């Protein structure tokens, strides 16, 4: 049985998230979705999520492609592997060819984990949704002033 791991914030869940989980499930028998904790998002991205961890985990747990949900509370993906022992790690291709991506591939290769990249959904992202929400909020403030 092949165990796959796909990690993400899954904040403001959108089609890109669904696509990654769908594609990942097609390449493994058991898919674990790692949902990055609020604290880790603040540490790594410099901002808190819109949707809290418990709610994001609840949403992701109800996606039919997901067999298991794991709260990701450490920055080092190898530490997560030590807890879960997955065979394949799925990541957006925005990491492919980067120093961080090459380092991840090297470290995972040492423990026999394959890294598979999926196309990043450029037309929809949580960042774009967050920006749109901020703009709408500003417009509402001006309109209501």
Write structural notes for this entry.
With 145 residues, the chain is α/β, with parallel strands linked by helices. It has a single domain, classed as 3-Layer(aba) Sandwich (Rossmann fold). It has six helices and five strands; from the N terminus they run E-H-E-H-H-E-H-E-H-E-H. The relative contact order is 0.19. It comes from Rothia kristinae. Keywords: Nucleotidyltransferase, Transferase. One of its GO terms (molecular function) is nucleotidyltransferase activity.
Q: Supply the CATH class.
A: Alpha Beta
Largest sheet: 5 strands, parallel
Helical proportion, percent range: 40-55%
CATH superfamily: HUPs
Shape: globular
Q: From the coordinates shown, what is the CATH architecture?
A: 3-Layer(aba) Sandwich
Question: How far from one another are the termini?
Answer: 59 Å
Q: How would you classify the helix and strand content by structural class? A: alpha/beta
Radius of gyration: 16 Å
Order of helices and strands: EHEHHEHEHEH
Strand arrangement in the largest pleated sheet: 3-2-1-4-5
Low-confidence stretches at least 5 residues in length (pLDDT < 50)? Answer: none
DSSP strand count: 5
What share of residues are in beta strands?
15-25%
The tally of helices reads 6
* Count of the domains: 1
Organism: Rothia kristinae
Keywords: Nucleotidyltransferase, Transferase
InterPro entries: Archaeal_FAD_synthase (IPR050385), Cyt_trans-like (IPR004821), Rossmann-like_a/b/a_fold (IPR014729)
Pfam families: CTP_transf_like
């Amino acid at each position: 049985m092949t165990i796959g791991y796909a990690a993400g914030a899954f904040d403001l869940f959108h089609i890109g998230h669904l696509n990654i989980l769908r594609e990942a499930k097609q390449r493994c028998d058991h898919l674990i979705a790692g949902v990055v904790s609020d604290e880790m998002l603040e540490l790594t991205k410099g901002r808190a999520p819109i949707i809290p961890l418990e709610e994001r985990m609840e949403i992701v747990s109800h996606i039919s492609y997901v067999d298991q949900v794991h709260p990701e509370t450490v920055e080092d993906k190898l530490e997560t592997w030590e807890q879960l022992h997955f065979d394949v790690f799925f990541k957006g291709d925005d990491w492919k060819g980067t120093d961080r991506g090459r380092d991840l591939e090297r470290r995972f290769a040492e423990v026999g984990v394959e890294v598979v990249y999926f196309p990043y959904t450029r037309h929809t992202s949580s960042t774009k949704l967050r920006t749109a929400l901020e703009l709408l909020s500003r417009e509402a403030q001006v309109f209501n002033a």
